[in-house]
Write a structure and sequence with these properties.
This protein has about 260 residues and is an alpha+beta fold. It has two domains: about 90 residues, D-amino Acid Aminotransferase, Chain A, domain 1, CATH 3.30.470; about 150 residues, D-amino Acid Aminotransferase, Chain A, domain 2, CATH 3.20.10.10. The protein contains five helices and 18 strands. A five-stranded antiparallel sheet has the order 2-1-8-7-3, with helices on one face. Strands 14-13-12-15-16 form a five-stranded mixed sheet, with helices on one face. The chain has a four-stranded mixed sheet with strand order 11-10-9-17. Helix 3 links the parallel strand 9 and strand 10. The two termini are about 25 Å apart.
Length: about 260
């Protein structure tokens, strides 16, 4: 849906070009890939990384490559947008769609809450197959008064948010979840860690429980909002914020935005 509640235009790929399809028209099969990113006045952060993530999930066929190029070409170069690129399994060939969605309002903070449902993930390392389940978990978090849901292992280790990657600071060390914890590869996290390397900021991956984040600064990362501070973890740790740090890193991230090809 659009920001005003109106249907978002949906363009389907017929193998030669993009044509409008009804938003309610059911896809041929289950979703295999989905990718979204913020487009502001034609500028995007790390669009090539989004492309690679989508193609890795959708299969690096010529059809997938051609669809991506045509869909990027169809994106508006003015205004603020949050398009979604989708691939679905079909009986004989994949189906590709582009949702041309206006950007919702952006924010610099988001509250988190732990909800049950980590087991809802069927393909935890791929963005797309579990999208509907993750959106339902986020909806449950919103009903509880938060903005996103935290997924944890059976042992209580923090994995990710339903629609965000999570990072935290131990002093001057930027920390992220251990690579052994299966989760969606976050483009924003990857760019953030590249920035950390470029600025000489030490980084660390670790297994951490929510209680072990008590007193730390926690960030939520995604392609829509970029970096957001987590001021509150409902029913969880008390969190902190170092004045100025969030704004500094948000400016660094924004400086990397580039015009669409």
């Amino acid at each position: 849906m659009g920001a005003d509640g109106s249907p978002s235009p949906v363009l389907g790929w017929d193998g030669f070009g993009l044509t409008p399809v009804a938003e309610t028209a059911p896809p041929a099969g289950p979703r295999t890939a989905a990718d979204s990113f913020l487009v502001e006045e034609g500028r995007v952060l790390a669009v090539d990384l989004h492309r690679d993530r989508f193609l890795d999930a959708a299969g690096r066929s010529q059809d997938a490559n051609t669809f991506w190029a045509a869909a990027v070409d169809a994106l508006p170069r003015t205004g603020a947008w949050f398009p979604r690129f989708e691939a679905f399994a079909g009986p004989s060939r994949p189906e590709f769609r582009l949702l041309l969605r206006p950007s919702p309002p952006l924010s610099r903070s988001v509250a988190l809450v732990r909800v049950s449902g980590t087991e809802a993930r069927r393909s935890p390392s791929v963005k797309g197959p579990d999208l509907d389940a993750m959106l339902r978990l986020r909806g449950e978090a919103v009903r509880l008064g938060a903005g996103d849901a935290v997924l944890t292992t059976g042992e209580g280790y923090v994995i990710e948010g339903a629609t965000t990657a999570l990072a935290w600071w131990r002093g001057d060390v930027l920390c992220t979840a251990a690579p052994e914890l299966a989760r969606v590869p976050s483009v924003t996290e990857r760019v953030l860690l590249t920035l950390a390397a470029a600025t000489g900021t030490p980084t660390l991956t670790e297994h951490v429980t929510a209680n072990e984040l008590d007193g730390l600064e926690v960030w939520a990362l995604n392609a829509l909002h970029g970096i957001r501070i987590v001021p509150e973890w409902l029913g969880g740790p008390a969190l902190a914020e170092l004045p100025g740090r969030l704004d500094l890193w948000r400016r660094r991230l924004a400086a990397l935005r580039r015009p669409l090809p």
